[in-house]
User: What shape does this take?
Amino acid sequence: MQNATVAEAPVSLTYRDAVREALHAALRDDPRVFLMGEDVGRYGGSYAVSKGLLETFGAERIRDTPLCESTFVGAGIGAALGGMRPIVEVMTVNFSLLALDQIVNNAATFSHMSGGQLNVPLVIRLATGAGRQLGAQHSHSLEGWYAHIPGLRIAVPATIDDARFMLAAALRLPDPVLLFEHLYLYNMQGTLTEGLEQVDLERAAIRRTGRDVTLISYGWSLHKCLAAAATLAAEGIEAEVLDLRSLRPLDEATIMASVRHTHRALIVDEGWRSGSLAAEIVTRIVEQAFYELDAPVARLCTAEVPIPYAAHLEEAALPSPARIAAATRELLVSARGP
Amino acid sequence: MRVEFRLPSLGADMESATLTEWLKQPGEHIHRGEAIATVETTKGLIDLEAYEDGTLSELVATPGTRLPVGAVMAHLEVEGGAAPAAELNAPPPGAPAPPAQAPPPPAATVRAPQAERVRLSPAARRRAHELGIAPETLAHAAAPGAIVHLQDIERLASAPPAAANAARAAMREAIGAAMARAKREIPHYYLGQTLDFGPARAWLTQHNAQLAVGERLIEAVLLIKAVALAAARLEGFNGHWREGRFERSAAVHVGAAIAVRGGGLVAPALLDAHAKDLAALMSEFSALVTRARAGHLRSGEFTAATITLTSLGADGVDVLYPIINPPQVAIIGAGAIRDAPWAIEGRIEVRPLLTLALAADHRVTDGRLGARFLRSIAELLADPQRL
Assistant: This one.
């Protein structure tokens, strides 16, 4: 071994590690930043995201809260108004409903109601989604509801890069940002893009290019779409896969550009179909790119039931790569003629 | 009384047509002359009109099917016919009125299956528009009920000779069949006469000066009216040759030969042209041209013509020797109106001259009557107030 300089392999890490690194960096770089939520300190976070942060940053900045979402989200809003940069963790989006009044009536409205004098630079991190047999009260995908609310920014990191850098982007904004981390993704392994130092919170990303159809999704569904696209590629179907990243605002320009390219779109959303974000995207495509469409816009959403506990039923309720591939084939088969 | 509505023959050469759309649904009341269905023929899309008033009771033919001429397409209930049963049930005079009853709930409207329109995806429709492909022509390309996608349009655009020309070829064939029959069966004689169009043109200029742009007349309308009046006056040119004899028609329906986009021509009729004033003829003529070019003529217009006028003046020919459109027995061809020397009372003047050519059926008339017919048209054009 005379020459020890080997090309440094990119370090493999999990999505969980990436979020923890993001928290660590935010706490390290800005003394105004602190983390608050149920079990984030001594327990290390219910998904072990904040493990070790208490030891590093101390109880002043890693604060365990009582089991009362309205209180600690409200406290976060107050701290943000007072000049801090709080990161509030809500264990799952289901529990955030207990803080709905604080989020929707206060955080989202202060800037508007104060004529821009009071900003709420608050980041709320929430686990969302199903797939881990956590039962109906811990498995729902309600981010689409929050995307309805003016005054909030809704972002969904689906990749290791976004898990690592979206938090900093959110903290830079003067408005409340909700970051939805799909609980199934915490164990996902990957590497950070070399040299990447920041990401935006506005733009959707094309994660795979294709000419035949655009699969539009976010969060865990993105990875199901990518898996389906790989299957379809073997059949000669080139699916473009679009990661929304931001649910509010929606990056219409990127969506329409892709639809103009492929002329067909399938929206895959773990939320329910009725009154959904998927419905909103369909509408915007029809409004803005109707004459580009070569087939009706299709949707694949979660079955309209509370997410079942039983593994086989839970699996059956959710979008899966096989179902996405089937829906895509159906969308294309009519185009190829009988 | 229940009557059958059958696919009419919309031309001597027509053997069949494809039903594209029902324009009326069972239960609807229909007036004579109202369009009740659209069929696709070699001459394009044609609206079929009802022959009598009545109520559409049953649709027999389904859209998308090809029907032979004479096939029963629907059943109508028409007024008239015995209705004694109803009378028996009527209350005797003076009997108390039956107790008032709540009106029955309106019957659920059952829509007959929607006619097969050509189903294009929005992207395909836009591309077709960009390429100037009319959706109607795609009916030939698409299987019934199939959706036409962008890819189909691109395919069609990249291989135009095969698919897009199918409709054109069919029309070519239809014209060929009709003209071959005319030349084979009808002993044509031809007469030509050149006339001074100056008086007609002067009158027209003066007349139009008083009218709004949209109401102004064109020279063709004067010709149509002159032909119609002359045909109404002289027996032997206005009518049809059927089963070995001439059937004269009292009304003059002048068929106007109209070139259609992409080649071919049709000669739909201006009904009762002899009895209409010039303004009415003008508006009907322009509507007819628009509909003919859009491929949307009515069945009556196709079969009704009793004489035809055809013109190639715009293309600069001096004389057009026409071929009779069977079962008609006469046709007038008009050339260009051209300034040329013309002798008047021993002087030579430059006048706008028009040469009319008559082709007439020798089984019905002789040249002498033909000459009178042409002269009569020329006289009318020389004194346009009479038109």
Q: What stands out?
A: The interface with chain B takes residues 263, 290-295, 334-338 of chain A (CB under 8 Å).
